[in-house]
Amino acid sequence: MLFPGCRRSAEEIPVAPPATHPLTREYIGFAVVNASFTHLLNEPGGVSQAYIRRGTVVRILERRIDRKSSESWILAEGNYQGSGPVSRGWLQETTVDVFNNESQAITASRAMTQ
């Protein structure tokens, strides 16, 4: 059964999503540590594997909310004190300020560390 209004006309062109759709990026934003220092954990609420100082810019790869405690966590990636060149770990979201792009995060970091 075909409905007359459901037929595709010859002039219709399929719509394609933009090439830079946000879900295709490897990260979801950037953050700057706003606490004097905070620990980078191996998992939300887990063991410390490094510490990060105020003003450090990190890339946010994932966001998770612990249903039991209602705490928000971010999986961060960056260069941290004592962790080697690039490391990943979890930070409590309350210890960072979140930004849409890296230039905003860098500007905020410079303002914090002056």
How would you summarize the topology of this molecule?
Elements (H helix, E strand, L loop, with lengths): L28 E5 L3 E5 L6 E6 L3 E9 L6 E7 L8 E6 L3 E4 L2 H12 L1
Antiparallel strand pairs: 1-4, 1-7, 2-3, 4-5, 5-6
Biggest sheet, open or closed, and with what strands and sense?
A: 5 strands, antiparallel
Mean pLDDT: 80
Under CATH, the topology can be stated as SH3 type barrels
Continuous helix count: 1
Strand order of the largest sheet: 6-5-4-1-7
Classify the beta-strand content into a percent band: 35-45%
* Low-pLDDT ranges: 17-21
CATH-derived architecture: Roll
Q: N-to-C terminal Cα separation, in Å?
A: 71 Å
CATH classification, class level: Mainly Beta
Query: Can you count the beta strands?
Result: 7
Helix content estimate: 10-25%
As for the number of domains, it is 1
Descriptive overview:
The protein is globular, with a radius of gyration of 21 Å. It has 1 helix and 7 strands; from the N terminus they run βββββββα. The strands form 2 sheets. A 5-stranded antiparallel beta sheet has the order 6-5-4-1-7. It has a two-stranded antiparallel sheet with strand order 2-3. 11% of the residues lie in helices and 37% in strands. The longest helix has 12 residues, at 102-113. With 114 residues, it is mainly beta. It has one domain (26-113): SH3 type barrels (Roll). 19% of the residues are buried.
